[in-house]
Amino acid sequence: MSNVAVKIINLVKKFGNVTAVNNLNLDIYEGEIFGLLGPNGSGKTTTLLIITTVYKPTSGDVEIYGYSVTRHGDIVRRLVGIAFQEPKALWVDNPYELLLWHAMVVGYSVIGARRVIRDIMEELDLWEHRGKFISELSGGTRKKVEIAKLFIQKPKIAIFDEPTAQLDVTTKHRVWDKIKALRDEGSTIIVATNDMLEAERLADRIAIIHKGTLKALGTPSELKDRIPGGDIIELRVDNRIPDGIVKSLIEAIEARKLDYSDGVIRAYVNRGEEKIAIAIDILSRNNIKVRSVSLKEPTLDDVFFYFTGARLEEGRIQ
Amino acid sequence: MIYPRIITIIAYRDLQRFWKYKWWLAGLVAMNLADLFIFALIFRGIVRRDIVPDYFYFLAPGIASISAFAAAFTIGREVMMELRRAFHHYLLSLPFSRLELVAGRVVSGIVRGFIYQIPFIILLIVIAKTPSFLDLLIVVSTTIMVTASMSSLSIAISTLVKSLEFQATIRSLVYFIIFFMSNVFYPESIVRLRFPEIIYIMVVNNPISIATTIYRDIFTPHVIHETYSIEVLIAKLAIWTAILVATGSILYMRNLQR
Ligand SMILES: Nc1ncnc2c1ncn2[C@@H]1O[C@H](COP(=O)(O)OP(=O)(O)OP(=O)(O)O)[C@@H](O)[C@H]1O
Ligand SMILES: [Mg+2]
After folding, report:
1. A233 shares a domain with A220
2. Nearest ligand to the C-alpha atom of residue A39
3. Total structural domains in chain A?
4. Rounded to whole angstroms, how far apart are CA atoms B59 and B184?
5. Band of residue B18 on the pLDDT scale cut at 50, 70, 90
6. Interface membership of A89 toward B (CB under 8 Å)
7. Is the entire prediction scored with pTM above 0.80?
8. Domain of residue A74, residue span
9. Mean pLDDT, chain A, as a whole number?
């Protein structure tokens, strides 16, 4: 195994009686792109803010190359950089001044700063907006200004908190490419997201957290393999299914796990193509009308659902 | 470890934001000048000469210290705005120490104070006298101490009071106490005559009063009736500065990180 860049140890963070992070343990390796996945309020941002020394842990610690966020904050801040979920700017700021100041803080000379800012602002189509008030920019543009900070800074550990949540598809892909390029230049990347596609596209490894605790950890394909019964049968039905029938269905198709809610049955099985026929047979014999059937390989979304019992999209709406 | 470069950069940001309000500031300076001329020239004829020989020359140094105080005090409002928008999260994540951060803020408070005060110092030089080099040094140190202590005080309020609405109230309250419980508008001897002893003690020990007496001593010594020692005043102001800067810094460093 390569070097551990970020070590999260028994981390707990409470806000009053809300436990945002609940005994989290994670190792993030040097040079990887690590995806932190979880629905709203699962503690992603809180964890990242502790890593960047913005919040103090209630208990436990995080070590960045062995330096503790609680005891060696000054060193940690020189190694870590973050693009916040909510872009950090006051309304009278303008993007150019904001980035120029950021560049100078992270060590550029004035001339060097001007050069790098122009390059990155042009790449992200920000140059034309450089002199506007932040209050005049669209949400996505503000977000790009926030992300640009890390491409300027190139910190040893670069943290992106939901980097593409508000971006259009083309820009999303461009940002993903730039994040990968940043990794190739030597940064370790942490990306918090609840976008499955983003996690799948970017991350070498993924941690799924829910209510502040770790639910699953591994590469995207490892996680998919961990779902018992590789296939998922999804059936939409019209009538309500009595519990007894659900039970006999589970037995008949040898489902490892079966969820039934809102007229949708989701069964985790092996040899899905054979089981579909059995399932439909049982349901129609009990006068339950099947409106649609589908068989699919698990996606990360399914992985997520399996480990947390929650859909990411649902989380986003709440 | 403290790096002057980073403190300069932090202070630069504050000043850049200060500069965005330049017309507002120019308006305030103009208003203070109008105050001085209208007020002082009217009162000049009303106030008894045996109490204040010349109200115009009496008030001018006071306005100079009030202006430095007011400008330095704006830093607290800035800190409050940052807290409201969670902008301080960004500041806390950046590669500098908490001490450098707070030092940058206080330095910017000092510079804000100077920028605002300069027109009034020039006015004093024009209407009163050109100070010697040593006197100028005393003026500059006094301004540094007033602005450092007052920006620290306003930072302390911003980080100590949790509720943002309440914070604005407390800040105005403290501002007005310092403003009016001073010797800027009325001589200390009158305060002693008309008010309880405790008010008098507060007035003479108010950093703004101390600074005003120092400015008066240098530019318009003939307006002061009370006896005083310039060394004691400078020492008192230095003590105030040490206490307030230490308190403000500690609160800022402790309270920003939750
Ligand atoms: N400053 C705070 N004060 C009080 N509670 C907080 C604070 N920050 C976060 N919380 C609470 O901690 C929990 C975790 O929030 P957090 O922002 O870490 O979630 P998240 O996973 O980033 O969610 P999202 O996907 O919405 O960004 C939530 O219940 C939230 O309300
Ligand atoms: Mg978040």
Report:
1. no
2. 1
3. 2
4. 6
5. confident
6. yes
7. yes
8. 4-224
9. 90
